[in-house]
Amino acid sequence: MMLILPVMTGVWNPLSGNLYVLWLQTYLIYLPFIYLFVRCVLIFPAIAIDAEERGPVMAWRLSKGNGWRLVFLIALLPMLTDLLGIALLDYAGAVAEALQIVVWAVCGVIEVGLISLSYAWLRDNNSTAEDEVLHDIADSV
Fold first, then answer.
1. Largest CB tally within 10 Å, which of 37, 40, 41, 100?
2. C-alpha of 35 from chain center
3. How far apart are CA 94 and CA 105, in angstroms?
4. Over the stretch 100-138, which tens digit does the pLDDT of each residue have?
5. Cα 102 to the chain's mean position, in Å?
6. What are the extents of the domains in the chain?
7. How far apart are CA 94 and CA 99, in angstroms?
8. Closest Cα to residue 59, out of 37, 75, 43, 74?
9. How far apart are the first and last CA of the chain?
């Protein structure tokens, strides 16, 4: 990322003085990586509960069709928290820094809950075509 930012500010030089525009540019560049990370982050709750099936393939299959919903659900809060941090840059001091630490701590707790709930919901409500075929075969026997 450190190699990309100078290029971005050189290309969009009139906009480079605005930290909010730079924040938006940064997240637009990171968006593909955020998407991949969010699709694979479902590995962590599976490992935490010692699920029988876990790994990147399971996470990818489980989040199939819900990738952008997960990005919105899981990545939006940290992005907005980061934006709040940029807004607090104008207020230097111990109070502003303490507020940032508290906000990030709360954000982390909420994110763990969102990831865990997303995993549980997708695990319980995700039926693939293969599962439906096996279910139909079991019903016909």
1. 41
2. 7
3. 16
4. 889 889 999 999 999 999 999 999 988 654 555 455 566
5. 20
6. 4-140
7. 8
8. 43
9. 57
What is the C-alpha to C-alpha distance for residues 25 and 15, in angstroms, rounded to an integer? 10
- Alpha-helix runs per DSSP H in 1-128: 4-11, 19-40, 43-48, 56-62, 67-70, 76-87, 94-125
Reported as half-sphere exposure (CB side, CA atoms, 13 A), residue 85 has a value of 15
Predicted structure pTM score: 0.69
How many Cβ atoms are within 10 Å of 36's Cβ, its own excluded?
14
Q: What residue has token string 């991949």? A: 36
Residue type, 111: E
Task: Identify the CA nearest to 107 among candidates 89, 83, 88, 127.
Answer: 83
38 Cβ contact list (under 8 Å, min separation 6): 63, 67, 70, 71, 74, 75
Question: Confidence band (pLDDT; 50, 70, 90) for 13?
Answer: low
